[in-house]
Amino acid sequence: MAASVLAGLTLLVIGESHMSFPDSLMNPLYDNLTQQGATVHAIGACGANPADWVTPKLKLDCGATREPGEKIKVMSRGTMDTQPIKDVIAKDKPDVVVLIMGDTMASYKTTPFPKVWAYQSVTALTRQIADTGAKCVWVGPAWGKANGSNIYENTYGKNQVRTQLVAGTLANMVAPCTYIDSTHFSKPGEWITSDGQHFTIAGYKSWAAAIGKSISELPASAVGAKP
Amino acid sequence: MRLAFVIGGLALSASAVSAEIALYPTGPAQDSAYLRLVNVSASPLVLTPDGTQATLNLAGDTFATDFIAVPGGKTAKGTLSRDGHQVPLAVTVAPGDFATVFALPAAGGGIEQQVVTEPFDLPNQLKASLAFFNADAQCSDAKVNVAGKDLDLFQKAPAGNPRRQELNPRAQLAVQLVCAEANIGAALEIGPLQANKRYSLLLIPSPGGPRLVAVTDSVAN
Lengths: 227, 221
Description:
The complex is a heterodimer of chains A (227) and B (221).
Chain A: E1 10-15, H1 26-35, E2 39-45, E3 63-66, E4 73-75, H2 85-92, E5 96-100, H3 115-132, E6 135-139, H4 160-171, E7 178-180, H5 201-216, H6 220-223
Parallel strand pairs in A: 1-2, 1-5, 5-6, 6-7
Antiparallel strand pairs in A: 2-3, 3-4
Helix pairs in contact in A: 1-5, 2-3
Chain B: E1 33-39, E2 45-49, E3 56-58, E4 68-70, E5 75-82, E6 85-92, E7 97-105, E8 111-119, E9 128-134, E10 143-146, E11 152-155, E12 163-167, E13 173-179, E14 182-190, E15 198-204, E16 211-216
Parallel strand pairs in B: 1-7, 9-15
Antiparallel strand pairs in B: 1-4, 2-3, 2-5, 5-6, 7-8, 9-12, 10-11, 10-13, 13-14, 15-16
């Protein structure tokens, strides 16, 4: 098997609540990327939107970190803050930053989609990452699973229409990051959720495998690897 | 430049939200709205938002603020002061819109406000975005040409609706203001125009006649 494009690279992976629990995306994605030869520092921050990594959001409801070679460290309510991305990058010196964010911007229960707010939030973060010289990959939201027959009826109001809008909008918003569209990885409702938005471990394993495969297929230039 | 518009009665108590079930934010209930102020005078302009002690001062080369976040759909209120004259400011910006308030000179030395609102379209991230705001009625048939070329960059922007277009990024661009088919003043050098950034050309009155100035459309942190 050919060596992965990620072999020898250092990755900083930042996500939302999807990355903040033991049976979440955190462990399977960390394992996948590590098995490809990358050194991975992963952070999950519940409810944090991109701009919260420019101006820190304090006392998050939940979160988790996983340092290279370590096990997941789950943070209890009020014990974790987001940090300025420039500080995290200065400490980790990643070749590429992988951002898995979408649901914290979607405003699933709001019409219309707050695209100006989302644009300001996304570009505030991408510009700071670009200034550091690190490469960047942005993974958009995956399909959820609405409860019952009404697709709008679930805890977060996650629905297919807004998910598709956010996924498509992010694709045109995240440059110079490379965009990975998670809606291509499954069919709506295919991955089982507990609340319409957060998957069971089976779904997270599928999502992690799909993200890892997509990143591995990116050109070397997109992840800061030598061609 | 940091300034907050305070609207009474908007503060919501977080304690009203149940803490039993963790619900992570999925974005705001409505979109952002922004307002910037342009001082069309050589005299300093002071904005004092209602309900605050803070003031915002525009003087000298600083003639325009960044875009400042304001509550969408709510009226941002304050007082504008210049040359001993004071006028109330009351501007409502719809969620998702960007408003530019020109503080124009009025007869007798007062302040006349002209508000131009621009809806936001997602920019092409490979292009630079340049807008033309016309706040000088004395410039008839206003146009902005590429300097040295008979090439329209902008024709007169309709009242209250600026024109905006996307350009290839470039190190610089020289533009020429044209009023009534005659070049006005020297060419204005603008740039660099960078991809995924927004800029504005502002046509404003001055004692010497219509004047074109360029600003970067930055959002205040």
